[in-house]
Structures are given as C-alpha cells and as structure tokens.
Sequence to fold (342 residues):
Amino acid sequence: RVKEKWAATRTKHPPTSLALQHFDATYSIQLGKLWPSVRVALLSERKYGALLNNFSHDAVLAGLEAQGCRDFTSDTDTEAQTSEVSTEEESSCVSMKKSGADGQQLPPLQLSPHIKCSVFPRADIARFKPARPDMCGLLGYYLMDAASVLPCLALGVQEGHNVLDLCAAPGGKTLALLQTQCIGFLCVNDSSVSRTLRLKKVLHSYVPKQFLNDEKLRITSFDGTKWGEIERDTFDRVLVDVPCTTDRHSLMEDDNNIFSKNRTGERRKLPQLQLELLLAGIEAACPGGEIVYSTCTLSQTQNLSVVEQAIYLAREQHGINLQVSHTHTLNHISEILWFFGT
Ligand code: SAM
Fold:
C-alpha cells in the first residue's frame, strides 16, 4: 500500500475517480432510482465463472461441484426477471439476424451447445483455485466474468457453421465458442498484435493442436472496421465484442484506464469505432446469418444507440434488413445473472 503522505506523485483525480464521476453523471439519469444499487454492484468484487474446458481429460466439473459450484448454463429456472438489474456483472449483448423482413421479431434464441460455466452460488464471491494441466498439458477451466459467456451462448452456433470472432483477444469468448466443438471454420481476429499473441497462448493452453489447424481456424490481426472490404456475406455467425469503457474495470484499475486524461480522445471515439465494427460484422455475415453485438458497459451510447444506428445505416446504405432480439430473452438460463431491459 502507498502511504498517502509520501505519495507526492499521486494524481489528484485518478482515472478510477474520473470514471465514477462520469458514471454518476450519466447513469443516474439513464438508470434513475436503480443507479444506487447498480453503483454498489459495480464497485463490488466481480463474479468469476469457470468456463469448463471440454477438451480436458480431467473430471473438472465434478471437482467444482464438490466445492459448491454449479454450471449456470444448464440451469432451467424459467421465472422471468426482466425488471431486475444485473448485480453480478455489467454487460450488454444484442443478437441480430441479417436480411429478415423489417420489423419482425426473431424466433426464440437457439443457444450454442456444450458451453458450460461453473459459478459459486449467488452472492458467494469465493475465488476459484488456478486451473491445473491434465495429462496432456491442457488446463481444465478458464476464468472469466460469468456474464461474458452470454454472448457466446446467444450466438447460437450450430453444426458446421462458419464463424467470425471480429474482436477476439485475449480469447475468452473464442475459447467458449470452441467448446461447442461443432464449428466448421472459425475466423479469429483482433487488431492488436500483442493481444493476438496472448490469444494464441490461451488457445494452445486449452485446445488440442488438431483443432487449431489451418483447415479449422484462421487467426488474423486486421482492423475489423475494414472487414467488409475483405469478406462479405460469408459467415453464418459473427461475434462483435467491441472495445468499450469496460465499466467495472475502469472503476478498479488506474493503469491503462480509458478514463485517464491522455485517453479522453480515444474514449470519445469509442461509439464511432463500435458502430464501424458492428457494420463490418453485419456485412461479413451471410444472408440469414446472425450477428451478436456485445460490450461490458451499461452505457446507452455504446449499446442501444450503436445498435440503432447500425440497423439504420445497414438498411439505408447497404440495403440490409435486420431482425433484433435482446439477451434478456435468455432469462430462462439462470437465476445467477439477472437482466435489465434498456
Ligand atoms: N472478445 C474478447 C474476449 O472475450 O477475450 C475481448 C475483446 S475486447 C472487449 C475488445 C478487443 O477489440 C480488444 O482486444 C481490442 O484490441 C480489439 N480492437 C480494438 N479495435 C479494433 C479494431 N479496429 N479491429 C479489431 N479489433 C479491435
């Protein structure tokens, strides 16, 4: 710990405080009387989930269950909770189907199969032990925010699908998608070369080599906003997990914080970048294909507004119609994650 009286170099307004000020100003208006409880949730310990590695030879799930964890993706609690707010994690995820008749609702979501994520019971923030390698050196589980599994489930990957993960590093969601073991071809991209290297390391720690060959997987480091110029009308499923203000992280960590003064310009440009990435993802999807847009922020400017603009521009500039559904239709999967429709 830094002793306050010696910390002469400590900034008067650390980025974490600037983030909280910003959220107080915007979310108190956006969320109204819900904001105080959401604020407490954001400032609380995060809820980890252990994404089960189906490629591992160890009986990991049984071990985790013995510790009191359970796989929330197989939870069949059907009680609707659309008026509740997520106290475990802030994230947003919207699913879109390309070239449907305008204004129609999507049929009920078909979830991606075989993705399992184990969590400690509600309000229990016990820590998972680090995953251990099995006899082949593959780790048994990958720790990630439990809510980050939702976009992968919502993508509804089915047998033989051609899938694009447009902003993939460091690879938690790519790994979740690979757990389905039914993808025909997976194209993984992230514009950051260093983060793409991290992603490759993650995949090699969890997935056997035969699932990572050129016939099944391509890893690139392109600017995703230009994807429409590279490949159009190609993928059955596209995940667009965009860079955002990462709300909880921005309240916890001063290092490399998007609210630091020297990143103000970058932060202000986020909605435009998100819009361009989503439009590129829409273009990359084949007719009838589905796109999931996800963030880990509560910001309406980065969620609803981006999706609305993308739908408008896709129609006006590219003649593409989209049908939309929100993930609070995923309510039935669990009581661990609560949803709030905005
Ligand atoms: N999907 C990842 C996962 O589950 O581990 C997390 C993705 S993170 C929220 C957003 C990513 O977008 C960052 O890794 C960042 O490098 C990448 N990114 C930023 N701008 C991009 C661009 N123009 N094209 C592609 N990727 C971009």
Confidence is low (pLDDT under 50) at residues 76-89.
